[in-house]
Amino acid sequence: xxxxxxxxxxxxxxxxxxxxxxxxxxxxxxxxxxxxxxxxxxxxxxxxxxxxxxxxxxxxxxxxxxxxxxxxxxxxxxxxxxxxxxxxxxxxxxxxxxxxxxxxxxxxxxxxxxxxxxxxxxxxxxxxxxxxxxxxxxxxxxxxxxxxxxxxxxxxxxxxxxxxxxxxxxxxxxxxxxxxxxxxxxxxxxxxxxxxxxxxxxxxxxxxxxxxxxxxxxxxxxxxxxxxxxxxxxxxxxxxxxxxxxxxxxxxxxxxxxxxxxxxxxxxxxxxxxxxxxxxxxxxxxxxxxxxxxxxxxxxxxxxxx
Length: 306
Ligand SMILES: O=c1[nH]c(=O)c2[nH]c(=O)[nH]c2[nH]1
Description:
Structural class: alpha+beta
Order of helices and strands: EEHHHEEEEHHEEEE
Number of domains: 2
Distance between the termini: 34 Å
Helix content: 10-25%
Bound molecules: uric acid
């Protein structure tokens, strides 16, 4: 029986790249993890041993590093679009039909110091010293198929907690229910979010200000998390997605994955102490996993369910 080569793609994954801008003593850095994946006319490579249509993964890696120098990294999204377009539009004989560029960006803050000696460029800033922002990783995925660009950006590992304004009660109860209803609980989660831009890369269409958009989307999610009096993490998820769509016209779909990082009240009775919602055991697993998409009416959601 004949077998059929199905979906296939290849490229170089996890190209770690740090780009330093030394235009002044106040350096800038971009720290990315870039994964390239190409789809196209690769039947022969798999079936016949001919590599005539194979752009080596090594070349895709080199392109990433060369483009960081040649074009710079204004934002992960713009860098991804430049790379994706290059692989599809400039590879010989049009063998690459679609390119997917995934980028994780690690954010660094400047190290602040009260010292004001000559080495320091401001009252409290060292121009070349950074500390990894312990918070989230910024993500983006750019796909270009020769016609349309699709940009899905996001973040992961943004850890947030409300120490009150969260309840959970009124749920289904059956013979296996042991959960106590909660009228004042901790709500904590580690946000993974992805949002799709309306941008499609048409001729003359301006790119959104990706960095600004990221900051605003992040802020709206945080504000919605903080300001929502929550009766479930599901409700908070919906509030976060809605807040982004209400405030950012350039975004038309938001997908959130929110692990419910459970905090259990510790029984202090054995020690003759009363626990008035003050001492918790923070469990790292298992966790409830709340996931959902919020999108504009009429928009067909495309962000893949993980
Ligand atoms: O916000 C919550 N949603 C749930 O679906 C759920 N289930 C559960 O046990 N605790 C919680 N909390």
